[in-house]
Amino acid sequence: MPIVQEIPVALRPEEIIAPHGKRPIRPDLRPVAEQVIALAQTLWQPRAVYEWFEVRAVEGERVIVGVPEQPDREFSLRVGPKVDLLHHARRLLVSVSTIGPLLEEKVHELQAAQEHLKSFLLDSAGVVALGAVGQTIRHIAEQAAADLGWGVSPSLSPGSLLGWPLVGQRELCALLPLDAIGVRLSDHNVLIPFKSASAVIGLGPDYTATKVGSICKYCALQKTCWRRRGDG
Q: Which of 8, 17, 41, 117 is 20 to 30 A away from residue 30, measured at CA?
């Protein structure tokens, strides 16, 4: 089961101060952001684990998958009403990514010390860094699809995709050895460390997209997502 550890993460101050790029950065914030990014680089531990599965059927709100070359092994993921996003899939890439626990611990330490600006910017840096780890996984899916002459689905996750509740993490995470990257699933179906994320990406010849897109328009968090604020 592949584990990805050599994941480059490079951030610019603009990405954590004004991620939408709709307003200029205050000059006094840039040095603080640069300090925070330098600190973050000593804290994050980007890594991911993933596996390939073959799609055997889509039944109701579930996708039935199997392990290649192991016809007796079969698993089921209840994706919900938007399982149609995987109707064209012949293969699934299932992954969990993380940046480790150290950055989150430092965020709490800065909060306790009343360093609220640094705490906020460091937390934002962690979110962007986790996105960079996820982008590495998306590139793996895109390259595999390109090699086959196929396309890709959007990236889907329990708790984000409408109709796929967070409890779906339990089925998904049972497919991967989370301990190999220092991640576990809490009793409330939350990935620990908190700066961790799961993803399912479909590959198939009937997909037209060559790049893994987002599910923003189907996202259960679209009204509160910080990335969409100010989009109009």
A: 8
Beta strand 91-98 with 70-78 is unpaired
User: In this structure, is residue 226 part of a structural domain?
Assistant: no
Determine the structural domain holding residue 115 and report its residue range: 8-218
pLDDT in tens, 204-225: 999 999 999 877 655 555 554 5
The 3-state secondary structure of the chain, one letter per residue: CCEECCCCCCCCHHHHHCCCCCCCCCCCHHHHHHHHHHHHCCCCCCEEEEEEEEEEEEECCEEEEEECCEEEEEEEEECCHHHHHHCCCCEEEEEEEECCCHHHHHHHHHHHCCCHHHHHHHHHHHHHHHHHHHHHHHHHHHHHHHHHCCEEEEEECCCCECCCCCCHHHHHHCCCCHHHHCCEECCCCCEECCCEEEEEEEEECCCCCCCCCCCHHHECCCCCCCCCCCCC
pLDDT at 60 over 90: yes
How many structural domains are present in the chain?
1
| Residues 196 and 96 sit within 8 Å (Cβ to Cβ) | yes
Query: Does any domain span residue 28?
Result: yes
| 147-200: pLDDT as tens digits | 999 999 999 999 999 999 999 999 999 999 999 999 999 999 999 999 999 999
17 in any annotated domain: yes
**Has residue 78 been placed in a domain?**
yes
Q: The CATH number of the domain where 144 resides is what?
A: 3.40.109.40
